[in-house]
Amino acid sequence: MLVVLSTLLLMATNGWGAHEIHLKNGSIIKTSRVERQGNRVAYEQYGGKVSINLSEVAEIRYHAPSVRKPRQRIDPGATESAGPAAVMVPGPVPSQDDDPATAPAPSDDRDLAARLAGALPAGSPLAAASHAVVWIKTEAGSGSGFFVNDAGLIVTNRHVVRGSEQNNRRVETQLAEAENQLNRRRAELNQARSRLDAYEKKLDSDRRLFNQRVAEFGKRINPQWRRDVEQNLREREQNVQQWRREIQQQTAEFDKYDRQFRQQRDEWRSTNEQLARQSRFRIILADGSEHSAVLYRASDSYDLALLKLNGFRTPFLKAAPSEAASYGRQVFAIGSPLELNNSVTAGVISGLRDHFIQTDARIYPGNSGGPLITEDGLVLGVNTMKLITEKFEGIGFAISYHHVMDEFQDYFPR
Fold first, then answer.
1. DSSP readout, 378-409?
2. What secondary structure letter does DSSP report for 319?
3. Domain 2-91 belongs to what topology?
4. Rounded Cα distance, 280 and 257, in Å
5. Residues 6 or more apart from 30 whose CB is under 8 A from it?
6. pLDDT band (50, 70, 90) for residue 414
7. Sheet with strand 34-37: strands edge to edge
8. Which among 295, 293, 291 has a CA at the least distance from the CA of 276?
9. Which region is the signal sequence (predicted)?
10. 3-class SS of residue 278
11. Smallest Cα–Cα separation from 18: which of 30, 2, 6?
């Protein structure tokens, strides 16, 4: 089956018309070029190349201008395990008019905007805005994001899809400190065992010397002296046995903690490595339905990233005018804290600092990547962090949405 698939993929690169890649999650990708790369399928979209694992593909349908090719179904038994993937789309995401296959017509059954509006009637602009917010699940945890156009483009935090560098440094520092403590404890136990060995050797030497004296002098030995020496040797032997039991118990406890530490350290690092390689992410919409989004770009400079849900028309948030970010204005943070999908907290803008909007709206773990919006449902920024102080509950920050558009200007035509 893989030989046949490779042949068809080669034909697809030599002049066929539009093709369809049907994913197992129900998404459909339309492209003019498809090719096999080991255990991955690469296709062109928006002027760039996207790579996905073959195991994610249900079937590929090939189309010519006048002849429809029979659809080729992927043999699930012939797929290989996933490996590291690089996903890159250098060009801008087109609008609905540029690429109608990416944003289906309103009558299409893949119109998520219409489906969510029907399933979750919106009684307010906030409720309508929540339709555009998604819950993102990763190898390491979860976060939030939101659609920014009707073609499925999602803005979120870089640390949601790649992990927090600051948190990683903090954890690695804690791991190093814990390992140093374990090493010190290991050295203490080794020293204790060395002292015990030396004490036992001295006890054996004293016992042999005593036995030699008894054998040499026999009945001429002072009875009281003999009783005193024998008592001393017995007490010292009891001390050795007690000392050995304590060291064995302490060693067993140390080995237990050492195994637990190494297991947790290795699991944490393995999870981070998996997250660093992850190119597709589960997203959960406001109605609880699950889909798969591909990572388009992670910013090198800011805590920002872009994902893309292909093949659907999506609800999306519109940008608030720059002057809307003003002191004292009421704002709302939407996200999925503690895995509570589409939760809303309220506050006011309490400061403007460079490209950050400061707010007292509660931003909990899981809110990261979600939108900070106005009462009209317009997006002001991307929630990104919370600073805890000793004197108050916390200060939330969001990256200004206009700064987001500047950072990803290729994806936000002005």
1. -EEEEEEEEE--SSSS-EEEEEEHHHHHHHTG
2. B
3. SH3 type barrels. (2.30.30)
4. 36
5. 18, 19, 20, 21, 101, 102, 311
6. low
7. 34-37, 40-45, 48-53
8. 295
9. none
10. coil
11. 30
In contact, 149 and 310? CB cutoff 8 Å: no
* Sequence-ordered list of residues with C-beta below 8 angstroms from that of 187, at least 6 positions apart, any chain: none
The pTM of the full predicted model, rounded to 2 decimals, is 0.60
Q: Is 187 exposed, middle or buried (0-12, 13-18, 19+ CB in 10 A)?
A: exposed
The CA R_g of the chain, rounded to the nearest whole Å, is 33
Tokens (6 digits) for 59: 């079937």
Whole-angstrom distance, CA of residue 324 vs CA of residue 326: 6
73-88 pLDDT, tens digit each: 444 333 333 333 222 3
Domain boundaries, the chain: 2-91, 167-276
Residues 136-172: tens digit of each pLDDT: 988 767 889 999 999 999 999 998 888 777 777 888 8
Structure-derived torsion over alpha carbons of residues 156, 159, 162, 164, reported in degrees to the nearest 10: 180
DSSP single-letter state for residue 163: -
CA-based end-to-end distance of the chain = 47
Burial code (b: 16+ CB inside 10 Å, e: under 16) for 80-111 equals eebeebebebeebbbeeeeeebbbbeeeeebb
Q: Answer yes or no: are the C-beta atoms of 31 and 17 closer than 8 Å.
A: no
Contact between 298 and 411 (Cβ < 8 Å): no
